[in-house]
Each structure stands twice: as C-alpha cells, then as structure tokens.
C-alpha cells in the first residue's frame, strides 16, 4: 500500500519479519508493467504489531530514503486519479 504522506514516499508492507523502527534495508519492488524490479533503500518509520484488529494487518511502514528516486513518480503515475478519490483503495 502506497503512503504518499511519507516524506520521499513510502509503502506499507504486510509482514511479520520483526523489523524495528529505524531499521534500514534494501527492497526489490515490482510494479505493474515494469519488467525489472526497482531496488530501493528504505527505513522503517511505522509498525503495526500482531495486536491490530481487522481489517488492518500487521506490518511495517517504510520510507524511501532516496529523495530523487523514480519509484515515487512511477507509483503516483500508476495511481493517477486514485490518490484523492473518495473510493476506497489500498492507498492510505
């Protein structure tokens, strides 16, 4: 799930890998219609633990560390028209 409100852009990753706030790692992100995954340096900026209740899921929010990455622009192009839509999406 894309998080446009995070500085440089960010994603919510539903997982249970036990990352801590501030952890940095590389993520290979595949986007629709792009043949190659994008390597991204990310940092954990948010955690949703196992105690979250439905419809929410456990996972982490990550911030893109590179302010000039092309992924943020690519995601926002793919989501054009849905970022401010009143219709529910998987975008926060």
Quick description:
The chain has 92 residues and is mainly β. It contains 1 helix and 4 strands.
Task: Describe the protein.
By secondary structure, the chain is mainly β. It has one domain: predicted glycosyltransferase like domains (Thrombin, subunit H), CATH 2.40.10. 10% of the residues lie in helices and 29% in strands. It contains one helix and four strands, in the order E-E-E-E-H. It has one helix spanning 70-78; strands at 10-13, 24-29, 38-48, 59-64. A four-stranded antiparallel β-sheet has the order 1-4-3-2, with no helix packed on it. The radius of gyration is 13 Å and the shape is globular. Mean pLDDT is 81; it is low at 88-92.
Rounded average pLDDT? 81
- Count of folded domains: 1
Low-confidence sequence ranges = 88-92
- Main pleated-sheet profile: 4 strands, antiparallel
Instruction: Indicate the structural class.
Output: mainly beta
Strand content: 25-35%
Question: What key phrases describe this protein's structure?
Answer:
92 residues, mainly beta, Thrombin, subunit H, four-stranded antiparallel β-sheet
What is the secondary structure topology, with strand pairs?
Layout (H helix, E strand, L loop, with lengths): L9 E4 L10 E6 L8 E11 L10 E6 L5 H9 L14
Antiparallel strand pairs: 1-4, 2-3, 3-4
